[in-house]
Write a structure and sequence with these properties.
D-Maltodextrin-Binding Protein, domain 2; transmembrane helix; five-stranded mixed sheet; alpha/beta; single chain; MetI-like fold; MetI-like; 19 helices; elongated
């Protein structure tokens, strides 16, 4: 009977979450076209982008501050200026850009986005503001072997997940083994370490890498494509005709005056600045910022996770079937779904109804996830306390609450301290997943440094050392208190 009740409770929880998400979609699917008015009323145009794709968008230090710049950003500055509003930039993974505008996290999205027929089914696009063409990056040592697309038959081809280049490689290179990754920096590293043989990429980005990395070369793709699908355009939520029409006026001016040539030239200047000094010390501020956010997320999530885990553990011991069932359902559901999915659901799914900032979304998701694991650790600790302790406390006249507080939990904490410590350490490392929604934690900053410096391995090595130092120091602290607990016995 208890097992049946638990299954019912879990089903109810899953159904409620699903309805919440679908309900949010329903409420946003039939709204009148107030897209332009909404932007004008709030005075900002929020643009989502993935700043790891020079020269389209990347980060650089401008007047002592890290900023997202590039051709796309100049295009959006022109659009925002013509609309009479301020430009606000939200950074996230490329494959989250269209989701961001569908769920209201951003008004528009840019990132060298090609307005393919498949994408037009989900979002609207402005007119094309730039035609860059398609190329392949290869290792310079392979330049003699790979001279055109036909030489890539049956080889391992890399492309950013969710991009036109990924689909083209699958469709137009016979026998190709296409490997997709979220970050172009990861793909370039995979190319340089011979995990892939070639990388499908926009021509301007290929040129940028070749100019800044002497170990790389490029070849033309030779694709014959519809110009209406392969150029770069601005994406907006489906039905945003008013906003699209307004932006198209700016795009028309950009195309008429060939402003993208100037935008690319400006981007090139900053790219040269980025590569003048590619030492990791020069980019130390990026790593420091990443550490600050990582520690903040981890510290807050540890506190909330312990409090929530303790509550859930006590609910599991409750004789109240409803409380017990809810605790079991929550723990099983959270432990049965990936943290990455939970982070994206909190930010994008619940964000349909309540607009939660990326940092807060990350903290909430990591905290809720940690709570489920801490609950099981605490439960096992409570179970490890001999029943005679409860009987002894009862014979002394202690209430159940006092028994749990003064007798059971203190002994349980001593028993579970090593496991709890491992959870804290794991949480610090697992919190890196929040980078997918644009939280500037250590992993996010590492990817920015890799994109800016065109150095694939060294930023990763520095990040590994930083994580090791953090976890090593935390381990020493935890061991110190574990020793004190043993001595207290």
């Amino acid at each position: 009977m208890k097992g049946l009740f638990n299954k019912i409770a879990q089903s109810v929880l899953i159904a409620a979450v699903t309805l919440l998400f679908l309900g949010g979609l329903a409420t946003t699917g039939h709204a009148a076209d107030d897209s332009l008015k909404t932007v004008e009323d709030k005075g900002t145009l929020v643009v989502a982008t993935s700043p790891d794709y020079p020269p389209y968008e990347f980060q650089a230090t401008v007047h002592g501050k890290s900023k997202v710049i590039g051709m796309d950003m100049d295009v959006m500055k022109k659009v925002a200026k013509d609309l009479g509003v301020k430009l606000e930039i939200k950074s996230m993974n490329f494959d989250s850009l269209l989701v961001a505008i569908q769920t209201g996290k951003a008004d528009v999205a840019v990132g060298g986005i090609n307005p393919t027929a498949e994408r037009r089914q989900s979002v609207d696009f402005s007119d094309i503001y730039y035609l860059g063409g398609q190329s392949f990056l290869i290792n310079k040592t392979d330049a003699g072997k790979y001279k055109n697309r036909s030489d890539l038959k049956g080889l391992k081809i890399g492309a950013q997940t969710g991009t036109l280049q990924y689909n083209l490689a699958k469709q137009k290179i016979p026998g190709a083994q296409v490997k997709g990754m979220d970050k172009s920096t990861d793909l370039v590293l995979a190319l340089k370490t011979h995990k892939i043989d070639a990388l499908g990429i926009e021509t301007p980005s290929a040129e940028a890498y070749v100019k800044n990395d002497k170990s790389l070369a490029m070849i033309n793709s030779g694709y014959k494509l519809d110009k209406n699908e392969v150029g770069a355009a601005i994406a907006a939520k489906k039905g945003s005709d008013a906003l699209i029409n307004a932006m198209n006026k700016s795009v028309a001016t950009i195309n008429k005056d060939n402003l993208t040539d100037q935008y690319l030239a400006d981007a090139g200047k900053y790219m040269k600045v980025n590569t003048q000094n590619t030492t990791m010390w020069h980019y130390s501020n990026y790593f420091v910022t990443g550490v600050e956010y990582t520690l903040l997320i981890s510290a807050v999530s540890v506190v909330i996770g312990v409090l929530l885990g303790t509550l859930l553990a006590l609910m599991r011991f409750s004789k109240n079937k409803l409380l017990h069932g809810l605790a079991v359902a929550y723990i099983e559901f959270v432990r049965g779904t990936p943290l990455m999915v939970q982070v994206m659901f909190v930010y994008f799914g619940i964000g349909i109804i309540v607009n939660i900032p990326a940092l807060l979304s990350g903290i909430i998701a990591v905290s809720l996830n940690s709570g489920a694991y801490v609950a099981e650790i605490i439960r096992s600790g409570i179970d490890s306390v001999a029943k005679g302790q409860t009987e002894a406390a009862s014979s002394l006249g202690l209430s159940k609450g006092d028994t749990m507080r003064f007798v059971i939990l203190p002994q349980a904490i001593r028993n579970i301290w090593p496991a709890l410590g491992n959870e804290f350490i794991s949480l610090i490392k697992e919190s890196s997943i929040v980078s997918i929604i644009g939280v500037t934690d250590l992993i996010y900053q590492t990817n920015i440094v890799r994109a800016d410096t065109y150095r694939g391995v060294m930023p990763i090595f520095i990040t590994m050392l930083i994580y090791f130092v953090i976890t090593f120091l935390l381990t020493r602290v935890l061991n110190h208190y574990e020793g004190k607990m043993k001595h207290a016995r």
